[in-house]
Amino acid sequence: GNRTFTMIKPDAVESNNIGNILQMITDAGFTIKAMKLRRLSEDQAKKFYEVHAERPFYMELVEYMTSGPIVAAILEKDNAVADFRALIGATDPAEAAEGTIRAKYAESKAKNAVHGSDSDENAAIECAFHFADEEIV
Ligand code: ATP
Questions:
Q1: CA-CA distance, 75 to 98, in Å (whole number)?
Q2: Which InterPro entries does its entry note (predicted)?
């Protein structure tokens, strides 16, 4: 697949790193196909992270993702899902490779600056969750 979905999470918006992160994304060869600044409601965050509903950190995750605005975007590139996950690095910034977005900008395993879809199937679901067809260029 050639598309993935990302969010710049509340911690990275709050720390004024929207511009730095978008620069890293476009420098890595991704094209922005859709983008918006938005605030997720509790219901929207719960639905987006439904797959994690049974995990012990689910409510913490929902609370964090509704704590401030996020930037949602659709990114295009060959091999987008895998290449984007390589660019963002491991979930825990302590384990994220040098030069990755999370190594540079994540605060912790929970407040980890960015989201990236984990499969082509989920990328399609997540793009449709946040964007109508006419919002995609
Ligand atoms: P994402 O799906 O956001 O790209 P990921 O695939 O690297 O992240 P997952 O294991 O799917 O990580 O967890 C989803 C999100 O839940 C993480 O990005 C992080 O914000 C949060 N999270 C994961 N593990 C923990 C934890 N142990 N405690 C608190 N929050 C966590």
A1: 22
A2: NDK-like_dom, NDK-like_dom_sf, Nucleoside_diP_kinase
